[in-house]
Amino acid sequence: MALCIWCKCVACYFLIGLQFIRIFSLLKSRPVYLLPALDGDMKTMTFLQEVVDILLAYITESFDRETKVIDFHYPNELLQRNNWELQDEPETLDDILISCRATLKYAIKTAHPRYFNQLSTGLDMVGLAADWLTSTANTNMFTYEVAPVFVLLEYVTLKKMREIIGWEDGRGDGIFSPGGAISNMYAMLLARFKMFPEVKEKGMSSVPRLAAFTSEHSHFSIKKGAAALGIGTESVICIKADESGKMIPADLERKILEGFVPFFVSATAGTTVYGAFDPLIAISDICKKYQVWFHVDGAWGGSLIMSRMHKWKLDGVERANSVTWNPHKMMAVPLQCSALLVREEGLMQNCNQMHACYLFQQDKHYDLSYDTGDKALQCGRHVDIFKLWLMWRAKGTIGFEAQIDKCLELSEYLYNKIKDREGYEMVAPVIKARMMEYGTTMVSYQPQGDKVNFFRMVISNPAATFEDIDFLIEEIERLGQDL
């Protein structure tokens, strides 16, 4: 019997060895042998399992506070360390896996609890799973015909977001776009079309000189949108902000009366640097008085509307004609996930549709209102909705609320820790450089107006704790103690 057991062990080791050799030989083959190649099943499964193992190891490492946030190298050094050049001949699957590992080795661990740089931080496991699923489905959001479930999920999620904003029965319209800058440009495009619909066919020569208004602390995308739409950056009038970074309504009204035809006002809910919330009610009153489109750029701070404790900062948002809201920021949905929400139903369609008969046929056998592609500027549009929808199912609204409340609590904790701290005069650029070279934590810096460089702290990572805030403060002091 002992001999029999021994023989089984030998057989077992022999089979394992054969399997290892088989897997090794599979990985030495080239991508051309993967599915849909004939007999590519085993090669494909082996390769993808190896990729998943690499990803899972990286995920685990990302949440380990003992690991670096970044393994920093200067650009020339990083170019020399690895061969990133593209070749004429295909490499082996083993080489492809090496490339995957190298890419992640030098990637910034944005999921790391001590990553506080701009702006999308954290890594949600359900959101990650949703991202994998949408990449596997690899479909396009332009018609119900090719993306039936995803189109319906976008419909119900946008409706829910409009309800949360406060629009009656969630009525209105909206779309997910590649980011907040594009969402803001959509809003400007709609405002111009609403006031001067002839501009769609006849161009800017058919309309008077227009003026858009936004805070001096607003995001640069407002000017970028004006440049892209032919309105011009000089037609974007910057409104003064008070000491806390909020737009001054009196200055807005004064400048509306001064010059060109006012057509668009963008208030900011969560400014880029100070995180300030413009006084939406007062701004809304002015927009109504002068019949100007009222847009709220809530790309950063819009998610606070999910919190019963903090949504007062967005009082008046329900009066907006359009709202930008980026769940890939405060709600930690994987990039990219930005929504533009519009009060007036049908306006996006009228503004953007081109009636492409090869795509948006009018004799289809289903409700054509679900073919959303003609109201978008894009033709091909990525499926961004599934990440948000699946996370919402997993967390519920109360889960997002708790996550947002925690981020605000950490922000207040940081403020209270440093406001009375002795000797806390920071030299941001030098400390930032040392921070990246050590790789222990990461936070951005910048000047603002007459204020010299200061650290711009972003807290949106669900993994961050009070201890991580303490570590950041102590690390800044350690790295700058000789300055």
TrEMBL record:
Cellular localization per UniProt: Cytoplasm, Cytosol; Cytoplasmic vesicle; Golgi apparatus membrane; Presynaptic cell membrane
Membrane topology qualifier: Peripheral membrane protein; Lipid-anchor
Annotated GO MF terms: glutamate decarboxylase activity; pyridoxal phosphate binding
PANTHER family assigned to the protein according to its UniProt record, in alphabetical order: GLUTAMATE DECARBOXYLASE 2 (PTHR45677:SF11), GLUTAMATE DECARBOXYLASE-RELATED (PTHR45677)
Assigned protein family: Belongs to the group II decarboxylase family.
Top-level taxon of origin: Eukaryota
GO BP term, pick one: gamma-aminobutyrate shunt
Purpose: Catalyzes the production of GABA.
Subunit annotation: Homodimer.
Chief place where the protein resides: cytoplasm
Residues found modified as N6-(pyridoxal phosphate)lysine: 329
Official protein name in the record: Glutamate decarboxylase 2
Broad EC category: lyase
Keywords linked to the UniProt accession: Cell membrane, Cell projection, Cytoplasm, Cytoplasmic vesicle, Decarboxylase, Golgi apparatus, Lipoprotein, Lyase, Membrane, Neurotransmitter biosynthesis, Palmitate, Phosphoprotein, Pyridoxal phosphate, Synapse
InterPro entries linked to this entry: PyrdxlP-dep_de-COase (IPR002129), PyrdxlP-dep_Trfase (IPR015424), PyrdxlP-dep_Trfase_major (IPR015421), Pyridoxal-P_BS (IPR021115)
